[in-house]
Specification:
The structure is a single chain. By secondary structure, the protein is of the alpha+beta class. The chain is 24% helix and 22% strand. The strands form two sheets. A two-stranded antiparallel ribbon has the order 1-4. The radius of gyration is 10 Å and the shape is globular. The chain starts with a strand and ends with a strand.
């Protein structure tokens, strides 16, 4: 599983960072969330999927 955060859609609510800090982190420079890597570790896939589904602007794309 791979995830990307669209910076144009992200409003910086931080839900993804709260739900899955192993995959998402806060970018102080952009004041938005970013994905920490390209491939989601298998043990974090459920938490990551919850973050994708919880994003209020659908800024996180999983593929």
């Amino acid at each position: 599983m791979r995830v990307e955060v669209d910076p144009d859609l992200c409003i910086g609510c931080g839900t993804c960072v709260d739900l899955c800090p192993g995959v998402f982190e806060w970018s102080e420079e952009e004041e938005k969330a970013v994905a920490t890597g390209s491939e989601v570790p298998e043990d974090l896939e459920d938490a990551c999927q919850e973050a994708v589904e919880s994003c209020p602007t659908e800024a996180i794309k999983a593929h």
